[in-house]
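Lab notebook page, bench 4
Experiment: in silico fold of construct C2
Operator: M.H.
Input chain length: 143 residues
Purpose: comparison with the prior construct
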Amino acid sequence: MSPIKVILGDWTTCMQDAMVIRHEVFVQEQNVPTELELDAEDQHCIHALAYDENGVAIGTGRLLPNAHIGRLAVRAPYRGRGVGSQLLTALVDEARRQHYLEVVLAAQLHALAFYTAHGFVAEGGTYLDAGIEHVTMRHLLTV
């Protein structure tokens, strides 16, 4: 696969591409209600977008001001190619630049191994969010 470009930006800059990907992955594929997928937090987040060699948006994620990473999504044809890893790395690196001591996320159970491979540790039990089983995961950051 050709190189992927990951950019960081605010909601105004990233909204159009991020919304398309999130709608495709969360609403269409995972049946998350639109009203749960979109929230007021987006305006306060740092967003990451991944683009393929043709400038097509293929993945997204966000870093909230409270050091939570969320809405990590990669379009189906691009999964398993390292796009999610590049997005997650960009968001964790940004958290370090913001001087956060840790980052936390709610991982869907099927993605547990992915996040574990990136240094996240599961804590607590599973819970339902938008009808999907999740577990809280935490990653302590070193400077």
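Observations: The first strand starts at residue 5 and ends at 9. The radius of gyration is 14 Å.
Next step: discuss at group meeting.
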